[in-house]
Structures are given as structure tokens and as C-alpha cells.
Amino acid sequence: MDLINQFIENYKKKLNFYETAGHIAARQLESALQAAGIRAMVTSRAKNPVRLKSKVLRRNSRRPVPYKNMREIYEDIADLSGVRVSLYFPGDRDKANSLIADLFTIIETKQFPEQSKPPTYNKRFSGYWANHYRVHISEENISPNQKKYVQARIEIQVASVLMHAWSEVEHDLIYKPLQGALSDEELSILDELNGLVLTGEIALERLQSAGNERIKNKETTFTSQYDLASYLYNYLSSHFKEEDVELRMGNIELLFKLLSRLKFFKVKDIEPILKSVKFEKDRRNISQQIIDQIITGNEKRYHIYQDLRTGNENADPKSLKAIDYFFGQWVPLENLLNKAACRNVPKSYGAFNINTLRRMNVLDKDLSNKVGALRRTRNVLIHDIETPDVEELMHQGDEIHEVYQALAHRLVKGDAKTETHTIKEGDASS
Fold first, then answer.
1. Could you say which of 26, 57, 180, 221 has the lowest number of CB atoms within 10 Å?
2. Would you place residue 429 in the very low, low, confident or very high pLDDT band (cuts 50, 70, 90)?
3. Same domain, residue pair 76 and 151
4. Is 213 part of any domain?
5. Which pTM does this prediction carry?
6. Does the pLDDT value for residue 343 go beyond 90?
């Protein structure tokens, strides 16, 4: 058996592996796109063995030196496992790029059109517009029993719905002609179709812009996470410089559910919230920063958000009790610190800043470290998947109560003295 046939037989044995790897990557990406409010269709496939053989033979014929072993072939063929992202709006390619960078380990990125291959006929249009990514699934985003799939190299193709349709036709006709190579006339017709597709993409971009204008009206109601996502992208792009804000949107779908539950349906309902968010460059994405602003200091909203995020149907009762206890202690402390932070900065609203409280001499170094550690636990409960140990949560709830008692004693006692006192670590344990 020659090398290429040997490779194809070996690949057939691994076909299920590549199909599963592509399926996992596609489902991860589809879920992330939906959550981020990006309209797209996501599909996956493993390379068809018949098509693969044709591709390998074609590649081998063009090489200065033929393939020497199967490892060379595996290294050369990047799309054994493939994912296709068909965007409704071509302008969302950059947003998709950010999601892919967050979800996967990127090996290589290619942008099309490539200018290195001049056409052999009088070509008028630019051809295939897309981004291709060669990636590995991240270990942190996969279950332990699926760890083997991180070894798979996966190609993700991102283009508009229209462009994918045209490229499929063009690719099959050029590389798999039934009656020999295409004539210049046939190639010109494909070129014309490409022009129509590019025109269609311009129309899609205009359609997206028209939708963006529609949702600027303060009375506009958000009907889905897609409306909300468009509004947030536009709001941030118009109010912040590109270098000042990181447009990692996070779970817009979850934010939309929270806003709907709180009956914040319209642009005018969310604008005051957005104006109060600082949108800092930290580990929190945009959705998380907005959610933090909405729920801060409000125990009822904390519980609503927890219900939406995790669902309580299958939750451990002891864990739920510990979480409830933690938040029951945390919210009064958070409220107290929010008010203290805003006292010297009347225009500020929302979550306290520990450094501000230290500058105001409300907290000393030791106690600010303790509050910082408690806040990190709060952030894990709000934004992460894993739940801290039940006993540790109960212990930290007690610790929050002690800190609150010390702070309340000083801050509520008298405004004049409050701003000049520093709360000591010893006060918190008294």
C-alpha cells in the first residue's frame, strides 16, 4: 500500500475522533456566540475521506519533495476537523475573533482575500472574504473525560452566510469539476456571482446599521439579547476610546434575562446603569461589570441573579444555604462600604473601591486585605462556575458579620469622626 492510501486508511480509523472534536468546538462556539448576542449558524464536520484523498494527492503533486511519511501529511492538512461559522452580519467578524481567542488556543490565523495568487483570467472582484483559525480546544473548557480532544487541530472558518454559500459553489466547481477544468467564461460567471455576494454583504451591513439606529431611541424595547448586544457595542464604541475599554461582552443572554426579570425593558431603563459603570480593564467582561452594578447592595437582586445563572433545581441544599448565608451577611457590608466610598465623592454610585476607602482612611491595610479576600469569594459565587466549600462559605459569612459590626460602630456613630478614623484589624474582631 502506498503512503497516501495508508494515510487515508489510518484517518478512517480516527474519523470519529475528528468528528467529535469538531462537534465539541462547534457547540462551545455556538453557545458563546448566542450568549454574546451575535447572530450566526455554526456547523462542524470531519473531512470526508474521498475528498481528503483528492486534496492530499493534489497537495503532494505540487510539493517540491513528495510526502515522506504520514506525520508530514497530518501536519500539512489543517482541516481534518472543521467548524464553519456563518455570520448573519459580516461586520461581526471582529467580535467572533475575540470570542475565538477567549475560547481556544490559536495556533495560526489566516485572513482572506490573499493577494499572493494573481488570477489567470480577467478577475474583477476580490473573491473569498473570511478569517480562518487553526486552534486547539482549551483544557479548561472541556470535561475530564474529553481531555484527549485537546490534541485535535481544528480549523474554524468565519465568514458571512452569503460568502460561505458562494465559496462552497466556487470550491466544488474549481477543484472538483465533473467535465474538466472550467473555461474562462465559467470563471467569469463565478466572478460575477462573487460581485453579487459582496454587494449582498454591503446590504447586510446597512441592515445591521439600520437596526443599530432603531435601538438608539430611549423608548425602544429590547426584544432579545441580540438587540441588547447591538446597543451595548454601539454605546461603548461611541462613549469610550478603543484603547480605554475591552469589548469582551461575555454572557449578554444572561444579562438580558436579569434585566427582563427586573423589568428593565427599554433603553431608558439601562442608560442610567451604564453611566454609573466605570468599565475598567480587569478580568471581568462587560456583562459582568454591568451585572455587578445592578446587583450591588441589593440582596433580592443577588438571589434573582443566582437563580438565573445556576438554577436551583439540582443544587445541593447545603450549598444553597451557605450561599444564602454568605450573601445575607455580605450585602449589608457592601451597602455600608458603598455609602462610605460615596460620602466624599457624591457623583459616584455603585460598588465601592477598596483603594478609595484606604485613601479616605476608612480601612487600614490589614482590614482592606480581609475585605478584598471576602469580595473575591463574592466574585467567584457571582461570576465563576465552581462553588467554594460549604464550611468555608459559612466561616466567611461569620467573618463578614464581624467586619460589618466594627465598621457600623465607627461609620454610623458620627459622620464627622468617621471620615478621620481608620478601622483597625483589631476592631473587626472585637
1. 180
2. very low
3. yes
4. no
5. 0.80
6. no
